[in-house]
Amino acid sequence: MKFKFLATSLAVSLALSGCAIEQNQTSQAVTQQQTNTTGEGVFSQDYLLEELENGLRVMVVKTDYPDVVSLQIPVSVGSRNETQAGKTGFAHFFEHMMFKGSEKFPEAVYSSILKNSGVDNRAYTTNDYTNYHLNFSKQHLDKVLELEADIFQNLTYTEEQFRTEAQTVKGEYLKNNASPVRKLLSAVREEAFEQHTYKHTTMGFFKDIEAMPDQMAYGKEFFAKFYKPEYVSLVIVGDVDPKATMAMVKKHWGAWKKGDYVADIKAEPTQQAPKYSHQQNPGLPGHWLLVSYKGTAWEPAKKDRAALDLLSQLYFSNNSDLYQELVVDKQIASQMFSYNPETKDPGLLHVFVKVEKADDLAKVRDAINRTYAQARTELVDSQKLSDLKSNLKYSFINGLDSSQAIAATLASYMHFERDPRVINQLYKTSDEITAEDIKAIANKYFVDNARTTVTMSALDKAPNFEQEVDLNALVAKLEQAPQAAAFKVLDKTNSSPLIDVNFLFNTGAAADPQGKKGLGALTAAMLAQGGSQSTSYKDIKQALYPLAGSFGYQIDKEMLSFQGRIHKDNAAKWYALVSDQLLNPGFREDDFKRLKKELIDGIKSGLKASNDEELGKEVLYSALYKGHPYESYNYGDISDLEALTLDDVKTFYNTELTQSKLTLGLIGAVPEKLKTTMLADLAGLPKGEQSRLSIPDAPELKGHHATIVEKSAQSTAVSFGFPIDTIRSSEDWTALWLVRSYFGEHRSSNSFLYERIRETRGMNYGDYAYIEYFPRGMFQTKPDANLGRSEQIFQVWLRPLRSNNDAHFATRTALFELDKLIKNGMSEDDFEATRNFLINFVPQMVASQNRQLGYALDSEFYNTDSFVSYVTNKLKTLTVKDVNRVIKDNLQTDNIHYVFITGDGADMQKRLAPEQTSPMVYNTDKPAELVAEDKVIADYKLAIPAKNIAVIAVDKVFK
């Protein structure tokens, strides 16, 4: 796991850490101006920036990406501002409440307008700001600005909505609590801070969340203090006219009245001694260590911030000597990564490590602190430092590949000083850092009294932690002939300075031989992360670093994709390195052992222990495809992986990675000379005969079945579904895709299931439906490309419920609504709204260059027109009659397989087999018609015979 300095923020994905700014401070008003920064710094877009009289600051950036606009609204309020005891978590809570509408635009109206306009509407909260981000077609800009302005100025909600959402937030907390990384961050912050509000996470203290339903009066007070224009910025990026856009903003937002509140945030006193705590986590596989030091505040003109980030990359990234020692060479650790959130006030700098043996915790702790001591005593290699700065520069530029990416990056910095120039200032400061600066700042911050250490495991204590580290006593060292082509080429080269290359082979996990499940994944890992015959993987990574080049893989049943990105200036050097890995793999025994271990750990710890939601979906696929090439998990079965040999990998490579199965995808300004070299090199692969795998029909599913996976879990995840004959190339696919969107659009509050289970009843975090494989759904909002399959299932995913009873009820609710959909079909209004949403939304699915290439390759696989035109043209000719026919032809509830991931499998089995009633209980009054419906649902028949219910311990899954 790797976090890029400046370009990305773990705070967004974890919603645990960040940095806030009080926007009540006086500042010079920014007059309307066109600032041309082309060629000056890493952020070089022209932009229009103005601060309105009420303190609202507005930034408009016109881009050349057609049609799509991204509106980001960072509000400078996060958990840092929650200064009142017993009232934590409200910044995050209002992220939820801001979707409830206003008097002018009630929730249903608000949602309907956004859905019909195809608006992708989401939000996230960090420690110091809350960001609302909307992506849509440019013709809807004025309406979106009007809607959001009214919500921000006139948010309206009932007590019932407030209490229901508080219940949802509690469920979200329980869901998040399954992650050991989140638990570690929460524990270290509570231990490290005495007075500052960084002591609690964005979610808040659990006791405060439990009390939240009764805090409506305080909620209104909190909103009134912070949702004021001086705390808010608008970042509008896309295919817009800047001056006309600014006029729209003034029309809708100009009358908003300024506030006068400033939070009194206590300064954290200097830490007087090192701190340590151990967190027992029953059932946790492996053992975790977190070493954290107090860091610096956000001051981009000073060297401290930039130097600490550079130091972290030099000494603790995947390219560091310590990573090579612990993860690659000695293989003591299976994971190691650093995280240095940018914070308004001094925060924490973290290094996380996961080990398999408890006795290794102390060894790794000592190695980390020995490395900090090393940073205090040596001067880093100047070339290494220069390469790092080059990598960071190009990484940042490479990430600005869509209007949404540009807007999201700007939003993450606008909350500091509400001026985009801080980005270039920080990079300018970074450019000035010397080896002497790194050493001096290491000596300033990495001292014993600034350290807090946390361990976490199933044990009641970590062994050998009695003797603390003494940094002053440590001493450290640095180590220092072409054939005719038989493959396809999809050439979409253009003038973009960013080049994306995709080596897509029509093979994958479905080609794994019996007893060797995971062989395709391990082979892919060896090619992408195992070095070449002439160069070790460590040396390849070091060579790629100054180029900011990437190269990785994705494996599915019928597709194995090796993808890379590079700036055109560095394309030839990048290709020389990665092509050597792909065409002349090193196949070293030590790399083989390391990568096999990582795959096994990924199944044990990443899937089975820490991701109940993904586990449920993968178990469902396995259950539906018993005896079929799709049965096994893409990354294999543990026992099969353990038995694989290096010779097995070499055989798979030689038989499956052939020209006949290869399509080379190119996009960006690929030099013609390099293109010629690529074609000649790839012609050296074996030609092969088969162009793609031959996949049989899915096994016939008869009746209702359930698989209950029992593991240590505080909530219950649910997935259910059945095979379907309709795939993307089928005549009815677009109509079924529309039905899926209406019933359960992924991570969208517009979908029907989401509204019935999460919004109305506050039961969980979300409820979605799919007709194509969608892995990693808890981490992303849009599906990845290159997951083409000859067989698909219809699937419903219910995000974790608070209890088995709730899971039973929610499953019944989903079945109840699915039965109604099949019986009654969609209404004309729902059909039109969903179609409008998809027509406007589908361009966003290919809004970046690498996604354009990926979806174009998928269209080759399915033999369809380009994705956007294919879907859009089909949607425009659809009628509600067509859609309702497709519902009856494809959807049914006679044959279903259910999967439950739960902490009490026997209890779940007892509920299912005798059709035990599952009453719904609320913490607030609900409408009579809903209560009446709940009584029907509480006894709705899932009809699963006892003989068709299997309870499996999690350690037996994918064994």
Automatic annotation (TrEMBL):
Record Pfam families: Peptidase_M16 (PF00675), Peptidase_M16_C (PF05193)
Domain Peptidase M16 C-terminal: 220-392, 644-836
Signal peptide: 1-20
InterPro entries (alphabetical): Metalloenz_LuxS/M16 (IPR011249), MPP/UQCRC_Complex (IPR050361), Pept_M16_N (IPR011765), Peptidase_M16_C (IPR007863)
A molecular function (GO) term: metal ion binding
Keywords assigned by UniProt, alphabetized: Signal
Superkingdom of this protein's organism: Bacteria
Domain Peptidase M16 N-terminal: 58-203, 495-631
Family, similarity comment: Belongs to the peptidase M16 family.
Protein name: Peptidase M16
